[in-house]
Amino acid sequence: MKGDRLLVIGPLPPCIGGDSVFTMNLAASGYWREAGIDVATINSTSTDRIRMAGDPYRARDAVRFLRIMRELARKLPRSRFVIICANTSFLLTAGLVLMGILAASRKRFVVKMFGTSLAEGIDAAGSIRRKVAVRLLHRAAYLLPETDGFARTLSSATGIPVDRMRRLPNFIRDADIGRSRGNARFDGRCVFVGQVKREKGVFTIADALAGRQDLSCDLYGPIVDRDRAEFMDRVSPSGNVRYGGILAPADVVSTILRYDALLLPTFHAGEGHPAVILQAFAAGVPVVASRWKYIPEIVPDRKRGVLVPPESPGDLLAAIDLLASDDELRDSIVRNASAYVDAFSERRVVGDLLFGLVGIDSKAGT
Q1: Angle 361-28-3 (CA atoms, 0-180°, nearest 5)?
Q2: Are 222 and 245 in contact (CB under 8 A)?
Q3: Parallel, antiparallel, or unpaired for β 6-10 and 39-43?
């Protein structure tokens, strides 16, 4: 059957972040094409600017909403299944209209939420919006939270049974599987990949490495406007904390491969299941991350990485020194992480999990 069979609604580049890269990779996966499924997309964002929590809505947001509605009217009739990929802010605003239209048109849809703040957002919403949001989320075939812990929290907030949720954190492209550098020596070269903002711990990294010329960290990612001036004051091309620009999504794993550790001392309020952790696992590079939100579910301490308290430069530095001094621990972490990441391969997530939710027989292509 020709025409759009699957419609993916979510953020897409040029805005670079975990959300947009996930949506792009999901829509571009070759597994849909191999099964004979055409994929259409609707980009739910229209700018390369990183939107911050609490930013006021502006006229451009109304224009964006009207564009989404026009594209939906054109593409929805030819689609038999819809995947909505959205953060809490979008789900509780434009997402309510989208889900209402999908429910009214009897389209089967699933909701993949980014981050782990949806339950809090529902609780904080006004009574009418809260009731509408819960009712529409109940109309989804499945909800796709990023972690098991968040699935339980979301179930308590909405009354949706956990068995109607499937964990869908992120996935690693097939092209990036099997690229691990293996057991390599530790030379103190660290890397950060993500949105460059205070809440992701970039200043914690700078404070931790201050004065330690035997250690370094290169930071890659788009810089939020709010923190640009301070960040550029803290990094130096000739120092041990440097800014490397924005990586193309396809280059992330190959870049991480060049380093000895990935640093993610985040305390971001909406943090979920950062894709960069899985990418480091795939690269065979140990992770030092903060003990924050649901990250311990992904990175059990000293099993698949080392955890530190958020906003603690001293603990971050101690964790880096631990990796440098304990070869046995470092090698064990790399082995455990490499084994774990296979469950999040493109084949497992798209070819198995999502095919099952969509109801696709990959052999028959129907």
Answers
A1: 60
A2: no
A3: parallel
pLDDT confidence of residue 48: 56
Torsion over CA of 138, 142, 148 and 154, rounded to 10 degrees? -20
pTM of the predicted model as reported, rounded to 2 decimal places: 0.86
In whole angstroms, give the CA distance from residue 286 to residue 304. Answer: 7
CB of 132 closer than 8 Å to CB of 96 = yes
With b for 16 or more beta-carbon neighbours within 10 A and e for fewer, the 228-252 pattern comes to eeebeebbeeeebbebbebbebeeb
CA 6-42-115 angle, 5° bins = 90
Type of residue numbered 118: L
Cβ neighbourhood burial of 192 (10 Å; 0-12, 13-18, 19+):
buried
Question: Of 151, 153, 146, whose CA–CA distance to 170 is shortest?
Answer: 146
Residues 341 and 280: beta-carbon distance below 8 Å: no
Strand, helix or coil for residue 164? helix
CA gap 17, 194 in Å, rounded: 7
- The Cα 193–Cα 227 span in angstroms is 16
Per residue in 72-106, pLDDT (tens digit) is: 999 999 998 999 999 999 999 999 999 999 999 99
Q: Where are the beta strands (DSSP E) in the chain?
A: 6-10, 39-43, 81-86, 108-113, 142-144, 189-193, 216-220, 241-245, 261-264, 287-290, 306-308
Q: Contact 133/122 with Cβ under 8 angstroms?
A: yes
Question: What is the structure's pLDDT at 238?
Answer: 80
Residue 249's nearest CA partner among 222, 286, 272, 270 is: 222
What one-character DSSP code corresponds to residue 213?
T
Q: How far apart are CA 333 and CA 248, in angstroms?
A: 27
Question: For residues 98 and 94, what is the distance between their CA atoms, to the nearest angstrom?
Answer: 6
Confidence of residue 54 (pLDDT cuts 50, 70, 90): low
Provide the pairing of β-strand 306-308 with 287-290: parallel
The separation between CA 366 and the C-alpha centre of its own chain, rounded to angstroms, equals: 29
Letter string b/e over residues 84-107, b meaning 16 or more CB atoms within 10 A of that residue's CB: bbbbbbbbbebbbebbebbeeeeb
